[in-house]
Amino acid sequence: MLKKIVIIGPESTGKSTLCEQLAQYYSTIWCPEFAREYLLTYGTNYSYEDLLFIAKGQLAMEDEYKQIMLAGSLQQNKNHSATELLFVDTDMYVMKVWCEFVFNKCHNWILKQITERKYDLYLLCDTDIPWVKDELREYPDLGKRRQLYHIYKDIMINQSTPWIEISGTYEERLKKAVTEIDKLFYK
Asked: What local confidence, expressed as pLDDT, does residue 138 receive?
């Protein structure tokens, strides 16, 4: 049985690193953030419409990774009761926050996907690690990052999927995530 775990939070909170670490720990794959490749290719001067394109690209990529996992399970003739994990770096909540934070509005298509897509666990990454500059990041100010974190936390509190706050060093984050994932899916 495939379980999808989404890692969310403000930029530079270790989401991609945690996805990669978890995928390695559980010997599985992870779905990267489509926006990163898109912005590296087309530049950071994005529009509101670009965010809709990025959202659609993210979900297409997630579906592709899900199909890879399902095909791999069939080829290996695994026991159907075995739990497999797909780690997803970003979902439509991230797109909603991005749209609203930058443009004060959100595409209806993104909102619809939030209600239709189902996940099994969210890991919300805190801002307690140092911000790392790269060519795509926009908010080095801790105040803005904390503001975004609280927006994500409010979303988590007001939705029904289980979620866990992830904080501490990279090692502590991985340990906490593994402990909680094991409790939920490998009791």
From this structure: 63
Tokens of residue 131, six digits: 């911000």
pLDDT single digits (tens) 114-127: 999 999 999 999 99
Beta bridge partners of 164: 123
Q: Provide the whole-model pTM.
A: 0.91
Amino acid at 88: V
Q: Phi and psi of 21, rounded to 5°?
A: -65, -45
In whole angstroms, what is the distance from residue 159 CA to residue 152 CA? 11
Strand intervals (E) in 79-181? 84-89, 121-125, 163-166
Q: How far apart are the first and last CA of the chain?
A: 15
Task: Say if residue 62's pLDDT is above 80.
Answer: yes
- Give the strand pairing for 84-89 and 121-125: unpaired
Q: What is the pLDDT of residues 37-59, one digit of tens each?
A: 999 899 888 999 999 999 999 99
Secondary structure (3-state) at 114: helix
